[in-house]
Design brief:
Number of helices of chain A: 5
Distance between the termini of chain B: 61 Å
Number of domains of chain A: 1
Distance between the termini of chain A: 34 Å
Order of helices and strands of chain B: HHHHEEHHEEEEHHEE
Shape of chain B: flat
Number of domains of chain B: 3
Strand content of chain B: 15-25%
Largest interface: A-B, 19 and 20 residues
Oligomer: heterodimer
Number of strands of chain A: 0
Radius of gyration of chain A: 18 Å
Shape of chain A: elongated
Chain lengths: 126, 215
């Protein structure tokens, strides 16, 4: 009976852990996606100075969010997102303006993929 | 490098804990369910060690789930003989009263060569010595020999009831019906559910062990 107790505790711990991890990931990544949408809106409305500030803030927030997700998600994907986030303010300041939207949509797409990666959808399980 | 070293220490400690929790059965002869868990555990433990880009939790969570499932299934197998038989199967008599059971061998997909090898590993080199050989659920062959041929030694007793449930192969082995067993239990004033183990040989010599709570 003691071992059954251990098994139940383990399963409960794993279930709670999975639930909390999923909720944390969803919250953190949703917040980044919202910020991404705000940056795009500012850029399209041609508020360049505000867009640069927002992009820098997005890059900082991405780094801190990814550090918190490092124990839950594959590091290679997180590195890819991190590199993109760091490049965004630089492109906006000095680079081709068209590249900015391309990189921003790549960044958003990666965040969306990572956000949905852990959901118990059939395509994820299979 | 440091990360790999730290991860190795963590996985090492976790695996030691896992084998302590799952018990000594995991270290001895493996039943199918335990073999599956052991194979999966060894692979899962290596993954986060080889790939530093993978979170350690990706290896630890499946290990925890496997351990929990193994503990729950083994507890269920202890409670239910039917489930235990479904998972581990039944022992199969391959030599009965010195005669090779060809149907049983075919059923087990065991060649005579395989059987001979298994018997040699049990220290039996002379087929004439063998009275019974049973293929156990863990794949081992148990042999009952009649080296001295004395009548007293020629009685192999097998289980008929285990934890209140009839063992069909044991009944068939001894040629005893359930009704006969129930009559014996009635004489002993012991209900079926109170039986922990009842063994018998072909001469219908019973040996009864009651559950502690019914003593």
């Amino acid at each position: 009976m003691k071992r059954v107790g251990v098994a139940v505790v383990l399963l409960l711990a794993v279930s709670i852990g999975c639930f909390l991890a999923l909720r944390t990931e969803k919250r953190l990544l949703s917040s980044l996606l919202t910020q991404t949408a705000q940056v795009e809106q500012l850029y399209r409305q041609e508020y360049k100075a505000e867009a640069i500030t927002a992009t820098e803030q997005l890059a900082d927030n991405t780094q801190s969010t990814l550090r918190r997700c490092a124990c839950l998600l594959p590091h290679s994907t997180l590195t890819e997102i991190s590199v993109l986030a760091t490049a965004l303010p630089v492109i906006l300041k000095d680079g081709n303006q068209d590249d900015f939207l391309t990189e921003l949509s790549k960044f958003r797409m990666l965040l969306t993929v990572v956000k949905q990666m852990e959901y118990p959808y059939l395509e994820n399980i299979l | 490098m440091l990360i790999s070293a730290l991860r190795t220490v963590i996985i090492y400690v976790v695996l030691i804990a896992v084998f302590r929790i799952t018990g000594k059965r995991q270290l001895g002869e493996l039943q199918p369910i335990e073999l599956v868990v052991t194979l999966l555990l060894s692979d899962l433990a290596v993954l986060p060690l080889q790939e530093s880009g993978m979170p350690l939790l990706s290896g630890l969570v499946p290990i925890a789930v496997l351990v929990a499932l193994e503990l729950l299934l083994s507890a269920w197998m202890m409670k239910s003989n039917g489930f235990s038989r479904l998972i581990s199967g039944n022992p199969v008599v391959v030599i009965h009263e010195g005669k090779l059971q060809q149907k049983a061998l075919r059923q087990l997909r065991l060649t005579v060569e395989d059987l001979t090898e298994a018997l040699r590993q049990q220290g039996v080199f002379d087929w004439q010595e063998i009275e019974y050989a049973i293929a156990e659920t863990n794949g081992k062959i148990s042999v009952f020999t009649v080296a001295d041929k004395s009548e007293e030694k020629r009685k192999a007793s097998v289980p008929l009831i285990n934890d209140g449930s009839f063992i069909t192969w044991g009944l068939e082995f001894c040629g005893i019906t359930k009704q006969e067993v129930l009559t014996f239990l009635k004489k002993k004033k012991c209900p079926l559910r109170a039986v922990l183990l009842l063994t018998a040989d072909k001469q219908r010599r019973y040996s009864l062990t009651k559950k502690e709570e019914h003593l």
